[in-house]
Amino acid sequence: MNARVPDPPTPKLLAGQNALVTGANSGIGEGIARELAAQGANVAVNYVVHPETAQAICDDLGKQGVKAIAVRGDVSKEADVQAMFAEAVEAFGTLDIVCSNAGIQRDARLTDMTLEQWNQVIGVNLTGAFLVAREAAREFTRRGMRDVSCALGKIIFTSSVHQMIPWAGHCNYATTKGGIMQLMESIAQELAPQKIRVNSVCPGAIKTAINRAAWATPEAEQKLETLIPCKRVGDPGDIARVAAWLASDQADYIYGASIFVDGGMTLFPGFATGG
Ligand code: BGC
Predict the structure, then answer these.
(1) Could you point out which of 74, 155, 226, 250 has its C-alpha 20 to 30 Å from the C-alpha of 197?
(2) What's the average pLDDT block by block, 10 residues per block, for the chain (275 residues)?
(3) Which residue's CA lies nearest to atom 7 of ligand 1?
(4) How many domains would you assign to the chain?
């Protein structure tokens, strides 16, 4: 006879909730969409290009027994963001969780950076975060409390370790992440009395397409690991599990927090042997 009694099934953290994840057709956004669905949420999967990829992800999410829809929209464009929210609300009735995740890099040294590179990154990463958060707060406020969560709604930004670590050759990107920190904290303060919880996850080096060159060869990966005290480049699941937990009532007293999920990258690893 087997002495071990099976564990009771774990209740899903986000059962009955509806989520929208921007930039969800690859990388960290896709990971978050998958984890939210695994935790019982219906998910709107935002994409800009490659509708077939977004649809394939939705088909997968459907296998978890949740509803999933692909919604097109460039987060840097106000009309796109409004249309995308309208589509998600039409499909699900309302939204409980909004993950502002879409982000790009257009890297250059300062003296070589074009205004276009600067504006593109500010547009998607920072203006996009503002537009998405604004529509989220409007929707939560419009529909009022629901019986699925202690909060009126949750907004989660995908920031970065670069909201605190300066990054030569990437000043546009680092500026947006520093900006997201102030955006997040300012609106967390503003919306907390309404029980809207606004927080950020701050990933370190995660294996996605955005930084492929930094981990694609064993040499590159080893070099990258010198910046990571735990000596492992992360994967999207590392971020997604934290985002899903942060969206759940398990994190009900967390307002305005930046949760670094970085294997210790922000611990100044250069000082482990010096200083
Ligand atoms: C960037 C990655 C980088 C990581 C750590 C992220 O925010 O998008 O390209 O590898 O920070 O530096």
Answers:
(1) 74
(2) 79 97 98 98 98 98 97 98 98 99 98 98 99 99 98 99 98 98 99 99 97 96 97 98 98 98 97 90
(3) 160
(4) 1
What is the token pair recorded at 156? Answer: 């989660």
- Cβ neighbours around 22 below 10 Å, total: 30
User: CA 11, 253, 42, 71: dihedral to nearest 10 degrees?
Assistant: -160
For residue 34, give the CATH number of its domain. 3.40.50.720
The answer to whether residue 10 is domain-embedded is no
Q: State the pLDDT at residue 2.
A: 65
Ligand 1, atom 9: nearest CA belongs to which residue?
A: 211
Residue 138 pairs with which residues in a beta bridge?
A: none
Measure 111 CA to ligand 1 centroid, in angstroms.
21
Strands in 18-21's sheet, in edge-to-edge order, are 68-72, 42-47, 18-21, 97-100, 153-158, 196-203, 258-261
Specify if 149 maps to a domain: yes
